[in-house]
């Protein structure tokens, strides 16, 4: 993993506070770890033909806990971001609007 030449880690640690900085650093992944779930979803037979799922660490994930802010480190999706009933309704209405059969 290449180290960044333009980020002063000590300055970031000082601005965030050591406890917050350490918590954040414990959640980060290296490039290979970060890409693993996306690559797995793209090439795995398990996910072939299955779109619209939230995956986390190479497995299907569920809703997160707590509030969602830019600093949230809990895995999972926001409750408002994934709603199968509303997605199905949106699909049906979209099919009607463009005049195609709903093949779902």
Automatic annotation (TrEMBL):
Question: What does the UniProt keyword field contain?
Answer: Oxidoreductase
The organism's place on the tree of life at top rank? Eukaryota
Q: Which GO terms describe its molecular function?
A: oxidoreductase activity
Oxidoreductase: present as a keyword of the record?
Answer: yes
In the record, the note on similarity to other proteins reads: Belongs to the short-chain dehydrogenases/reductases (SDR) family.
Q: What is this protein called?
A: Uncharacterized protein
């Amino acid at each position: 993993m290449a180290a960044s030449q333009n980020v002063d880690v000590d300055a970031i640690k000082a601005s965030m506070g050591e406890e917050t900085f350490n918590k954040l650093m414990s959640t980060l992944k290296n490039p290979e770890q970060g890409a693993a779930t996306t690559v797995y979803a793209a090439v795995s037979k398990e996910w072939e033909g299955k779109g619209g799922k939230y995956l986390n660490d190479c497995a299907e994930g569920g809703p997160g806990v707590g509030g969602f802010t830019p600093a949230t480190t809990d895995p999972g999706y926001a409750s408002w971001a994934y709603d199968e009933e509303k997605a199905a309704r949106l699909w049906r209405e979209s099919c009607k609007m463009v005049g195609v059969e709903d093949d779902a």
